[in-house]
Amino acid sequence: MLIDSLDRMIISLLRKDARLSYRAIAREIGVSTPTVIKRIRKLKDAGIIKGFTVKVQGEPAEGVLFIISGEDARSLEKRIPSVIGVKEVMRTSSGGLIILSEREATDEIKKVCEGKNVRLMSYNIISSERHHNLKARCAYCRSVMDNAISVSAGGRKYYVCCPVCARELQAKVKGMKLMSGE
User: Fold this and answer.
1) Is-above-0.70 flag for pTM?
2) pLDDT by residue (tens digit) across 24-68?
3) What are the boundaries of each domain within the chain?
4) What is the dihedral sign for C-alpha 40, 44, 45, 47?
5) DSSP string of 20-70?
6) Bridge partner list, 156
7) Non-local CB neighbours of 172 within 8 Å, separated by 6+ positions
8) CATH number of the domain at 5-45, out of 2.60.120.460, 1.10.1140.10, 3.40.50.2000, 1.10.10.10?
9) What phi and psi, each to the nearest 5 degrees, are found at residue 142?
10) N- to C-terminal Cα distance for the chain?
11) What angle do CA 16, 19, 25 make, to 5 degrees?
12) Helix (H, G, I), strand (E, B), or coil: what is residue 109?
């Protein structure tokens, strides 16, 4: 099912407050209440809306951070935001894209990148929010982190504060393996 701007507005409002009434949504986006009811029903039937949930303070914020680089990266800038589960798309100064999404969007983002001359890297985001007293430090720059990105390098799992540290740590571990002759 293709979704349009009206569907995206409905989804956006429901993400902010899943308890909004059909009437409140209709008023907010300027359509009739039956239109909203029909749209939400279609989104649920198509599996785009999988349910409504409650976020509790202290639960971990999880997601996936994607970095897309390569000569075709900018050509994806208009397609990526239409993927359900994408929260934010940012451009880099080098012509790439940084995408913050929910885990459920992973397969769809990979499909959008298929056949394009791009390099796609993904990092799982794990919030340290559930451990209020824990002060996690970046494995590369040693700064205290509010949120961490998990990275696999050299057969081990590390936690870093940002994509730059992730890339640098992977390069450092790779260099250490080359020096040791592994």
Assistant:
1) no
2) 999 999 999 999 999 999 999 988 888 877 665 555 456 788 888
3) 5-45
4) positive
5) --HHHHHHHHTS-HHHHHHHHHHHHHTTSS-------TTSPPEEEEEEEES
6) 153
7) 140
8) 1.10.10.10
9) 70, 10
10) 49
11) 70
12) helix
